[in-house]
Amino acid sequence: MKNIVILVSGSGTNLQRIIDTIDSGEIQNAKVTLVVADRECYGLERAKKHHIENILIPRGKNFSSELGNVIPKDTDLIVLAGFLSILKPEFCENWTGKIINIHPALLPKFGGKGMWGMNVHNAVVEAGEKESGATVHFVTPGIDEGEAILQKSFEVTAEDTPETVAEKVHQIEYEIFPKAINKVLGN
Ligand code: GRF
């Protein structure tokens, strides 16, 4: 059984998807042992509803070291599922190859500092991109720079707005996140 720790900052629909796909067997041989939030958010409530151990570590300069103290040593995978703090390089290096993130665009496009949430979708539409999508990638000290694990795109049409792009990206995320987790876990 592989142990997964999930980090959240927001509504946690990707967290929910991971919980549900573990329950349904789409993600095999894994359990969520801990959910960590860096702020009050609905993701934390989802963990509580599912009786998953959870903790709030307020965001700020000590976040990464406090996180390092609470993550169980036998953790196989740390999953950033809508998580907004930047993890310190030292933390990333301690867990090399064991931290993954989902990003709401086709990296390396529309990644890096400030590229989160609606900023991403606004930029995609403003640039007149013909496609967008989602990327699951390894987390390294460089923001959104780690190797891609899985990526899927869709066509952006003239009718699309940042809001419709956001909705389509979310659907793609729900599809590729469980697949990427299986891949990293060697399932
Ligand atoms: C997702 O779009 C993810 O790509 C980004 O933050 C969003 C989180 O959504 N990193 P949710 O909290 O899982 O609903």
Automatic annotation (TrEMBL):
The EC number(s) this enzyme carries: 2.1.2.2
Residues at the catalytic site: 103
Record's keyword terms, sorted: Purine biosynthesis, Transferase
Lineage: Bacteria, Pseudomonadati, Bacteroidota, Flavobacteriia, Flavobacteriales
Residue positions binding (6R)-10-formyltetrahydrofolate: 59, 101
Function statement: Catalyzes the transfer of a formyl group from 10-formyltetrahydrofolate to 5-phospho-ribosyl-glycinamide (GAR), producing 5-phospho-ribosyl-N-formylglycinamide (FGAR) and tetrahydrofolate.
Residue ranges of the TM segments: none
Entry-linked Gene3D superfamilies: Formyl transferase, N-terminal domain
GO biological process, one term: 'de novo' IMP biosynthetic process
Entry GO MF terms: phosphoribosylglycinamide formyltransferase activity
Domain Formyl transferase N-terminal: 2-181
Provenance organism: Chryseobacterium angstadtii
EC primary class: transferase
Pathway membership, UniProt: Purine metabolism; IMP biosynthesis via de novo pathway; N(2)-formyl-N(1)-(5-phospho-D-ribosyl)glycinamide from N(1)-(5-phospho-D-ribosyl)glycinamide (10-formyl THF route): step 1/1
Reaction equation(s) it catalyzes: N(1)-(5-phospho-beta-D-ribosyl)glycinamide + (6R)-10-formyltetrahydrofolate = N(2)-formyl-N(1)-(5-phospho-beta-D-ribosyl)glycinamide + (6S)-5,6,7,8-tetrahydrofolate + H(+)
Name of the gene: purN
Entry binding sites for N(1)-(5-phospho-beta-D-ribosyl)glycinamide: 12-14
Any single Pfam family the record assigns to this protein: Formyl_trans_N
Site (Raises pKa of active site His): 144
Designated name of the protein: Phosphoribosylglycinamide formyltransferase
GO CC field: cytosol
Similarity comment: Belongs to the GART family.
HAMAP family on file: PurN (MF_01930)
